[in-house]
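Each field is listed here:
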Amino acid sequence: MSFLRSLVHMAWLVLTVIPYTLAIILVAVLGLDRSYRYRIASAWLGLSSIGSARVLLGIQTRVIGMENLPTGEKSPAVLLVKHQSTLETFLMPALMPHPLAYVFKKELLYVPFFGWAIGLLDMIHIDRSLRTQAFKKVVARGKECLAQGIWIIMFPEGTRMERGQKGVYETSGTRLAVQTGAPVIPIAVTSAKCWPRKAFIKTPGVVDVSIGKPIPSVGRHHKELMQEVEDWIEAEMRRLDPEAYR
C-alpha cells in the first residue's frame, strides 16, 4: 500500500508542477510583480507538501514554535533547518509568513519545470566549486533579499541526512547572519520518520517541526553562533524523535 501511495504521489507532483511552472513563466513574461511568482510556487509547494502528503501519503505535519518567528513586515531572519528529506524543502514556504530565498546549487536550474520555476524566483543559486565567489554572492544577494523582507533559508548540513545522523554544520548561514545583523532561527524537522532520505516509498505518520527562538547575531563570531544553532537543533531532534537516537 505504501508503494502504491508513493507512486500516486510522485505522479501527482510531476503532473501538477507543469501547469504551475507555466503560470510562473507567464507571470514573468507579462512583467507582473515578482511576488506573484513566489505565491504561485508557494501554492504548489503547499499543495504537494501538506495537502497531497496528508491525503495521498498519510503524512501529518505538527508544528510548534510559530510564535518565535519575527513579526515585522520587513524584519529579517536567516532560517537554518535540519535536513533529512525533500519534505522540508517543500514545506517551509508553505509554513512561513514571509517569502523565502533558498541558497541552492546551480545544477538544480537544469531540472525540467522545477528548475525553470526556481530560476525565475528570488532565490540564490551558487557554484559550490567556487567557494569564495559563492559566499560573496550569498552575502550580496542575501542583503538584497533581507532588505525586501525576504527571509534566507539554508540547510547547514549541506545535504540530506539519514534519520538519527548528524552531518557537519557549515558556517555559511551564520556568517551571512553576522554580516547582515539578521537573527538566526534554528528549526528541527523529523521528516525522515515518514519520508526517508532518497527514498521513493514514504510511510504514514507525523512529522514534527520545531521552530526555535531567534538567536541574535550582532557581535557574535560565526563559528560560535553555528555551534549554538547545532546544539539546539540536535538536542531538539533527540527530544522529538528519541527512537532514532537510541
The longest strand covers residues 205-211. The first helix runs from residue 2 to 30. The mean pLDDT is 91. Residues 149 and 163 are 33 Å apart (CA to CA).
